[in-house]
Amino acid sequence: MSRLHVTEPSAPAAAENPGQTSTLAGLRVLRRGPGDVALVEGPSGRMVLLADADDAAARQWAALFARTLGPPRLCDATALRLLAGPAATERQEAPEQSADGPAVRLLDSLLDHALHEGASDLHLEATPEGLLARCRLDGVMLELGRYPGREAAEQLISRLKVLAELDIAERRVPQDGRLQHVNARGRTDLRVSIMPSLHGEDAVLRVLEQGRAAAPELGSLGFAPAVCTRLRQAAERPHGLLLVTGPTGSGKTSTLYAVIRSVLSGLDKIISIEDPVEYQLPGVLQIPVNEKKGLTFARGLRSILRHDPDKIFVGEIRDAETAGIAVQSALTGHLVFSSLHANDAFEVMGRLRHLGIDAHGLASALHAVLAQRLLRRVCLHCTAAHRPEPALLQRLGLPSADWAGTVLRMGRGCAHCRGTGYLGRQAVGELVLMDERLRELLLAGAAAAQLRAQAQRAGTQPLREAALDLVRTGVTTLEEVLRVTVD
Ligand SMILES: [Zn+2]
Description:
This protein is an alpha+beta fold. The protein is 35% helix and 28% strand. It has 19 helices and 20 strands. The chain is globular and about 65 Å long. The relative contact order is 0.08.
């Protein structure tokens, strides 16, 4: 372990309390160079030098700054190393070593809180007043706390950057990284995304549920039994493209894992390329995307094809290259599962055309599209009967005559659901299976409305209808349907 020098012109806080992160957490690293030298700005705006004393280049820097700013002071290396950027091998011990820092404590407690609640994301937002911490729970934002003072926000973001091995000095461009949070419940991997905003920098930490024991069962996700049956049949075909679509956080990936799990027989070779690998699928060769190393979906997919797979799972189609290879693979005897960001099944077809897939290729390759959403379930601990509100029916375009006499369920709010009236979520979906008539329409360049009308004639239940069925059976509410579905 190397020692670090601190140089400051006059009685710096850091030197008064060596090793106290609390006095150093506001420091900003302005420049890092060889030998782990960092020039930083102290709380009072003075310049401080952090240097690895065992390195010759660092000693030269220290000498240079000693001439300018006064003699260097020796300081406990532990706290300073956090700011200078911990070496990879030392990252694991960092949290305990600096457990007294306010930024460290705040970040740890926010993460603990968010993970305890079962949140999918932690949002840290810079506001004119300071910091707003929120988390996404069952798809809805929940406020965790407000922390006055811009300094608190800056310290927290700096701490995040150190943990995620990002450039602390860079504040103008977005940065992405990863970190691991360790608490009594175990280790949690998080994807960190930092973005400059009007009042500073915002961060979003996505919880990565890596290595979960088993993928969910298709039947447990909440889809109507008919959707499950037809989806499973679609997944048993020898070739073609099966897509799941929906906005971010609509449960696309879980559905794909469940579908693949339902067709695991050991008789096929199944290879996946995923970002990240969220569940382990026994019998499936799973490859994680690594953009930094150049392993993108497209490149991974091309390599996979040389490994003679029967079925391929591509986490997401985001670009023309991946779309092209996925469609080509589906046309050459492979069954390809993937997801694509779109609002409904028919927008998927338009998106693929935009990504350069010609109508003929698309009509031949595509055989099923599932559009899905996650709806919050009414809390069973505080559920109560009520009559639908006329205003809400009107906003949903539902005839009040059909609904006025219906008894619906809603949660009054209790300790179990933190007063929200909802506990847990379930999927709802619209499954479009391509048939001859739809293929003809697609080839003829028909509009989405025409395709939709044909799909419904052929038995596809629209997403909103499926969601309304869940309202009638008391699983969810009209408000939820309005929140997650569009006309
Ligand atoms: Zn409740």
